[in-house]
Amino acid sequence: MKQLKIYCISDTHQRHRELTDRLNDGGDILIHAGDFTNYGGRFSQKVGGIDDFNEWLGTLPFKHKVLIFGNHERVLSEDKDVTKIKQRFSNATYLNDECVEIDGLKVFGSSWKVDHGNNRDRLWATVPIGAHIVVTHNPPDGKQEAIDIDKSLMRRILQVKPVLTIFGHIHVDYGVWERDGVTFVNAAMMNDHQKTLNDPIGFRLEITDDKTVKLDRL
């Protein structure tokens, strides 16, 4: 049996260093679900936010850090030189429509997807059956009925049935809830109505000898 401590954050928008004290206890895996910058559609290499973010990740006492891009990093995600991207984010594992195994957990990550109409089901077919954790910036579900969710992604999540689905984007929908046997985590740290960032969301995952994964909130 193995126990892993995981923390989830998203939508830090260049305020990541405000979370340092709240992450100093560390853990096994830190997951950032995108929007760590404020760049939007215009990206300047002169802005030091990206390098500062990578340096900050390197200071945190987590064995593994996993990262995807949000809509504010969409210009970065258009860069086809994946090797260059991964070199720039040297203190994390950057995932884009790919899966990595960490200490027995299969973690799938996919960066921000713009609306492709009828092709969305095909886009999300990349989420593999057997993934324990799925990380996207697009929200597949929401606590509030008015939230604009990605219904194609939700259909795929309910097929895959991961233990955890982690995302962000909708700042006001921060929190954890369960639906149809899946735990959904909107880890948006930025709250549009607060000056103080939300708290990182933590879990303890227990992997049993028969590969069953059990989940508890920290």
TrEMBL record:
GO MF annotation: an example: hydrolase activity
InterPro entries from the UniProt entry: Calcineurin-like_PHP, Metallo-depent_PP-like, UPF0046_metallophosphoest
SUPFAM superfamilies linked to this entry: Metallo-dependent phosphatases (SSF56300)
Residues in Calcineurin-like phosphoesterase domain copies: 4-172
Similarity-based family: Belongs to the UPF0046 family.
Name recorded for this polypeptide: Calcineurin-like phosphoesterase domain-containing protein
Species this protein is from: Didymodactylos carnosus
UniProt lineage: Eukaryota, Metazoa, Spiralia, Gnathifera, Rotifera
